[in-house]
Amino acid sequence: MVVGGCHQCFVGSLPRPRWLIDAIQKHERKELSEGEMKESYDDAVKLAIREQELTGVDELSDGEQRRFSFLAFVAERLPSFRLIPVKELMNRDAEKFVGEMNLPIDIISNPVIVEKIRRSRPLAVDEVKFALKHTSKKVKAPIIGPYTLLINSWNKSKSGHVYRSPDEAFEDMARLLREEIIALRDAGASFVQLDEPGIGNFCDYKYTSWLLALNGWKVSDMRELHKISAELINRTVKGVGGVKVGVHICRGNWPADEAHLSKGGYENMIDEIVELKVDQLVLEYATKRAGSFDAFEGDRWDGEVGLGVIDVKNPRVESPEEIVSRVEKAKDVFGLEKKYA
Predict the structure, then answer these.
(1) How many domains are contained in the chain?
(2) Does residue 12 or residue 122 have the better pLDDT?
(3) SS3 at position 335
(4) Which residue spans within the chain are E strands per DSSP?
(5) Kind of pairing, strands 59-60 and 81-85?
(6) Average pLDDT of the residues of the chain
(7) Which of 72, 83, 257, 339 could potentially form a cystine with 68 if both were Cys, beta carbons 3.0 to 4.6 Å apart?
(8) Longest dimension (CA), the chain
């Protein structure tokens, strides 16, 4: 479906149905077998696919129904990472950010590097193959981006015996995700979306500062991280062809109170964003917290643009007119032919 010249698709995850959450909890309590759990996941994915089909989108995903989170699932797949509760990683420097940002440290875990990074098994290939069996639509594959994964996973005390510093992990991290992109392409994915909320946090550095303190990173200037993010992404996609690749830059989805989330436009990160060697930028554009697209004026980006025009943090359902209005406001900056909504 093309509305007003824009292709329609979902950015990534869809809410899990209550019955799936119940099944996961029963499985954790050993009250549900592996086969029964797999059947529940399969049913949830089929439902997510059908829901997207009914909206008339051009391209869909499996709704990420099988993943605990976009970040944590890496540790569920690969032994190079271990899922460690954030409260076990906390230190005095990191603690000062908890109250200010209302961070839910008791319920979140990070994938932490504990072995040399290697792709010992696929991350999302099986998800794509399953989805393609149950739809005639194009299937996109959202996976974690290299910068966001690195800044969350290299921890000085837990990872230092493998990589003495984050930069020593650059090439292995890029290779891991490059191999996955190629495998997703070969499995039939039409689009691979690298999720990079870490770049979105450059607008005010609050969350970034907490991660640096939590993991023992040392940088003399925050702009160093901008360069690292662009370098990692460009290394990851170098030499990849035959599939569209995009970078999704969002502003976070927790805690529920938006007052604690990153705020600001794209001005502080624009120089690195426009240097990314990808086909599409997927940008948040449904909340005042994300600012405007003024930084892109003057044809600074010549690739495609995915506009996040539905505010998933607001329980109010926007009208079609509101959504169209958001798309139209970006028209003069990017040009209609470049936009996905």
Answers:
(1) 1
(2) 122
(3) coil
(4) 2-3, 6-7, 59-60, 81-85, 109-113, 138-144, 191-195, 244-249, 280-284, 304-308, 339-340
(5) unpaired
(6) 91
(7) 72
(8) 59
Residue 245 sits in a domain whose CATH number is 3.20.20.210
pLDDT (tens digit per residue) in 284-339: 887 777 888 888 988 899 899 998 888 877 788 889 898 888 888 887 788 766 55
DSSP characters over 80-139: TEEEEEHHHH--HHHHHHHHHHT--TTT-EEEEE-S----SS-SSHHHHHHHHHT-SSEE
pLDDT at 287: 78
Q: Confidence band (pLDDT; 50, 70, 90) for 32? A: very high
Domain range for 147 is 2-340
Handedness of CA 170, 176, 179, 184 (dihedral sign): negative
Q: Say if CB 308 and CB 266 are below 8 A apart.
A: no
The token duo for 8 is 């329609």
